[in-house]
Amino acid sequence: MNVHNPNFLLMVEGLTVSFDGFKAVNDLSFYVEPNECRVIIGPNGAGKTTVLDLICGRTKATSGSVNFKGRELLSMREDQIVHAGVGRKFQTPSVYEDLTVFENLELSYPKGHSVFGALTFRRDDKVKTRIKEIAETIFLEDLLNDKAAYLSHGQKQWLEIGMLLIQDPELLMLDEPVAGMSVAERKKTAELLNRIIQDRSVIVIEHDMGFVADIATRVTVLHQGKTLSEGSMERVQNDPKVIEVYLGH
Amino acid sequence: MFSDYTMNELGAIFAMQGFAGLILFSVFVLMALGLAIIFGQMGVINMAHGEFMILGAYVTYLTSNLFADYLPSVFGLYFFVAMILAFIASGALGLFVEWVMIRHLYKRPLDTLLATWGLSLILQQVYRSVFGAREVGVSIPDWMMGSLPMTDMIEVPINGIFVMVLATGISLAVYFMMYRSSWGLQVRAISQNRMMADAVGINTAWTDRLTFGIGCGVAGVAGSAFTMIGSTGPTAGQLYIVDTFLVVVFGGAASLLGTIASAFSISQAQSIMEFFLSGSMAKVLTLLTVVGILMIRPQGLFTLKLRK
Amino acid sequence: MESSSNRLFSARDLIGFAVLIAIIFVVLPIALDGFRLNLFGKYLTYAFVAVGLVLCWGMGGILSLGQGVFFGLGGYCMAMFLKLEASTPENTSIQSTPGIPDFMDWNQLTALPAWWEPFNSLFITLIAVILVPVVFAFIIGVAMFRRRVGGVYFAIITQAFAAILTILIIGQQGFTGGVNGITDLRTLKGWDIRSEEAKEILYFVNGGLLIVCLVIAQYVRKSKLGRLLIAMRDQEDRVRFSGYDVASFKIFIFCLGAAFAAVGGAMFTLQVGFMSPTLVGIVPSIEMVIFCAVGGRLSILGAVYGALLVNWAKTSLSESFPELWLLGLGGLFIAVVMVFPNGLAGVYAEHVEPRLMALLGKSKAAAPDSAANETPAE
Q: Which residues form a coiled coil (chain C) (predicted)?
């Protein structure tokens, strides 16, 4: 059943998780193509964040399969999933407040991930160049030596995106990347996201419909842990089921 | 190893051992109840828990002396007065400690652990200065002395039965407070979602202080009960701390039923093993088993599977 | 900044190390008589534990209340070797079974237990001093960290181990010497460790080993692993989803802390001449945490001063005012949590160093490059 189809980067099939009988995600299937930007929308409690948690291994699935480039992710540890090429950004910015921006990025640099590797890791020119490059992308090049604790909310979000970028994942999962941002920051972030989703697949959870329309290749609408509707933004917006769920609430 | 005993004797031994296990069970339950409230519901590690119990024991000791000196006619009843006073004394100290120390440390559980350890050292020294380094015992009222003969070979000490009755009574009281009172509802609400509880108008700061105070008060009552089966010294509290925490953690921290179930299994395991092995080896094996199981199942016996 | 914190020693670290080396190797030996020097040597064995705790607890957020177990295992391994050497058939000819340690004879043992045999060899003993505690720490670490047990649960379980080991040692007195411990240790390969001269040499060996441990700790602190520990302490999930196997780092640092403690324990046995369960249990284990906290939970050098200061205060106070000592120690636990979360190192960095710098006419800008680390755990 779980044969890899080269047309898809990620194949989620029959994914289910139950918490004491409550199925937060219920027999969910969807497929993500290379270079696609998939946006997941849905009312609160639809299971959006849980889906990302399941894919990246933060929550253990009850049944189903998540196939990424021919590998089954459900049986892998979180760090192995990251090394397979899946990056995850959390809803609330999670950066290392006690470390500088530079150090934050350095820890995400894809080298020296074992105990021995971390002990012998050298901060060579290649590392420094790459960190500066990323810092420019995320508008933080002047703040490299500041502690992350002193950054604004929006800057922390960018930093976390930068920490993912430096790993260069093939699949990037973003949980509400523009939530809590000022209008100006939001605009800058949209610009940033538009740039970084070019050469990879992205799954985004987002509520801002204008933003969604701007970036989405395809949209999946989740409702009570199941797919309610899937397709282009236009199609989804005109789907009577979606209208009922959103307006009926 | 059984060949030396007749069947009758064996039966009696197991019955007595089982009864000893039940007394140990009651002791564990009494020790753990206060902690189950404080650690289980608030997530606060109170390393001075044993010292709050000892305070209750000393209050009982003082009350018994007072009754002996001034009210000898009703001496048989002093214990019930002592229990109430023990609850008030330990509870009041708990409220004070929460106000001075604990409330500043809610977000730093490891620091709470160290600070309360410091508190336990201070209390130990205070007890030693006030009551002396020697252990003190209370005079047990006459009606609690002696044993009840069950059969011609099995007899059970009355003070043991009394402790069991107390443990049952206090467990029921705690159960009703936790699950049937508005305070209990608030405590459980806070332990599940502090921000939300705050938002719906629960005075979380006051509920925390009250919870800590009640937990300490229950510890005081437990200490009071212990005077019926043993003597009290300034450092006696420290002996209980590992057992008590293991009972609560093993039961699954947030579950009252789990605490009682784990107190039961640990006490039975220990008293049965004590029959076959030396006391210290029985203790080592019991602790190792508990720790081993906790390593396999760190969430304890009873827990809810929650959505993160 | 990027390059300076990449070096093993900043100028500030170098000064700190130089001052400590001067104190251990010059000031104390000159200022103290043989008896007091030996006492300070004993205090310094606790510094090993405290330095390990800085790495585990201060940086990694892993609070172990069972460091006494590792200290004790290291110390007992050493003591077993010394005891066997002291129990020659000639020395023990009055026993009913000559040639075995006296406490075994008292407990009606008639032969050396098999697991004591390897400790006839100094080489194996020296390996065991490190290996036994580290393997034990590894087993605990794998079991706990793989299952993501941390924080207070880890603290309670390690404390339970301290209790278990104490009860076990006391209960099995025929094999362990019981509550008295292993006493009456005399020579190391024929070299009388009780002589004044030997004690002085052992003090310097101890100091040397401590400096080695400090350099290792400094290397770890300055490596990427050091920054990872801090990152894990504050945002464990983010580290995990940056592709690190968090558990393996915790296991590593816990084992390293255990190894440090074990070296301290072995040096304790050599300098003090005995090992007993009273050095292993719950109370000494949690006191070791206070050495680290007083020094400053994030400062490896501070940990050494913390161990020295608290133990010195303990000796001076508990001789003359035992009541005061317990009150003082209790107060110290509360104070380092509520008032000085960064301990002596914090006080130094905030109050002493700026004034010192002003005095020396240097600009304040040269100050802490380790500032990134100076916030308490949790």
A: none
